[in-house]
Amino acid sequence: MSGNIQLLTDTLARAKSEDRAALIAYLPAGFPTVDGGIDAVKAVIAGGADVVEVGLPHSDPVLDGPVIQTADDIALRGGVKIADVMRTVREAHEATGAPVLVMTYWNPIDRYGVERFTAELAEAGGAGCILPDLPVQESALWREHAEKQGLATVFVVAPSSKDERLATITAAGSGFVYAASLMGVTGTRESVGAQAQDLVRRTRATTELPVCVGLGVSNAVQAKEVAAFADGVIVGSAFVQRLLDAPDAEAGLAAVRALAGELAEGVRRGGTNG
């Protein structure tokens, strides 16, 4: 089972060896439908994403801004279940060979059962989980089962995290560290800025894990800005917005594929394009 996290590690290492940041895309499962969500994940990978985070839709997504909340609401109204999230991971991974993680709040896992969730995610070919609201000091049970199944445990660090706290978080994590570029919720922003750069510098001082930056990146210019100092660039709301704006399913898939291509150019540090 340990091949799951190894694939993620190898993918991030390959991007580094190519002197670029990895492009990590986020899309919620079940949006606009379960099948449509699977097609969207395949489309962003075809467009150039290295890694995909599949969101487990939640009725109260505290970290997510209005765009992802809208998509989550559509998915929940469509009746999306954890089984659909697992199916999304399985079909996307089998079709593309790319590492696919699940991003979820803790409550759904807690209700479903940690052992069951980790076993099913590993069996589906998942590379791991991003757990934005699980405190490290309460994560022992999760980490024990994730490790047993060969899954990465990705924790989120924020600009408010003190150095000592960063060291505690990064010591407990695996796969990579998710650096939230600024305080607040996900969404597109004009600039991702100096706060993120400082957070990456402080986080790197505590760990050998790759540090990937999310919250606010929406175009190739911003991707290039972040790629200059981070190991990975995480984009979510911009992909979801393309799907929300599309007149039909085919147009949506074309739009997210095109955006992935633009962002994939942006994360390449060399050259003048992007």
Topology readout:
Layout: H1 3-17, E1 22-28, H2 34-47, E2 51-55, H3 66-77, H4 82-96, E3 100-103, H5 106-112, H6 114-123, E4 128-130, H7 140-148, E5 152-154, E6 156-157, H8 163-172, E7 177-180, H9 193-204, E8 211-214, H10 220-227, E9 232-235, H11 237-245, H12 249-266
Parallel strand pairs: 1-2, 1-9, 2-3, 3-4, 4-5, 6-7, 7-8, 8-9
Structure in words:
This protein has 274 residues and is of the alpha/beta class. The chain has 12 helices and 9 strands. A 9-stranded parallel sheet has the order 5-4-3-2-1-9-8-7-6. α2 packs parallel to α12, α10 runs parallel beside α12 and α11 packs antiparallel against α12. The longest helix is centred in the last third of the chain and has 18 residues.
In terms of per-residue confidence, which ranges show pLDDT below 50 for 5 or more consecutive residues?
Answer: none
Total beta strand runs: 9
**Average pLDDT taken over every residue:** 91
Could you state the order of secondary-structure elements as H and E?
HEHEHHEHHEHEEHEHEHEHH
Gyration radius, rounded? 17 Å
Cα shape: globular
Derived from helix and strand composition plus strand pairing, the structural class reads: alpha/beta
**SS strand fraction:** 5-15%
Number of helices: 12
Gap between N and C termini: 38 Å
Q: Order of strands across the biggest sheet? A: 5-4-3-2-1-9-8-7-6
